[in-house]
Design goal:
By secondary structure, the chain is an all-alpha fold. It has 7 helices and no strands. The chain has one domain.
Length: about 150
């Protein structure tokens, strides 16, 4: 997640670069950001007992898509509109144009590396109790199977 956040932040801070460079940096970001899934899916399987795994995955996906997929674009859109208006006012213009919209969207996209860093912190916090949670789940499974 740190590499993903840094690659995205650098791509956004790089200024005017070749499209290929920007795409390469953003591609590195998404490559590392998608490692999130391989870690979280397996962790859910290791800490949730089998009879509750489908429910846990459903809640995970609901949160993921409602917060990230639903509210993420809304937050970026609101920020983009705000920064577009700010750029227009700073330029002393009275009419919105594509240049101001581009500046607004670019500035709003700084939310992406921030969200990646927040996710990284949440994953680090979750990892602190992963081993004990997995052991607790295993002990509970053994206790139920032994009784």
């Amino acid at each position: 997640m740190l590499i993903a956040a840094l690659a995205t932040g650098y791509a956004l801070l790089a200024g005017r670069v070749e499209v290929a460079v920007f795409v390469a940096l953003f591609s590195i970001d998404w490559l590392f950001a998608y490692n999130f899934y391989t870690c979280v899916y397996t962790a859910i399987q290791d800490v949730i007992e089998p009879r509750l795994r489908a429910t846990a995955m459903a809640l995970f996906f609901a949160g993921l898509y409602l917060l990230g997929g639903g509210l993420g674009p809304l937050a970026v859109g609101i920020l983009s509109d705000h920064y577009s208006s700010a750029a227009m006012l700073a330029a002393g213009a009275s009419e919105m144009n594509e240049t101001f919209k581009a500046v607004g969207l670019h500035n709003a996209m700084y939310l992406i590396p921030v969200a990646l860093l927040v996710t990284m912190v949440a994953l680090l916090q979750a990892s602190r109790c992963f081993i004990s949670d997995a052991a607790t789940m295993q002990q509970g499974m053994q206790a139920r199977s032994g009784s």
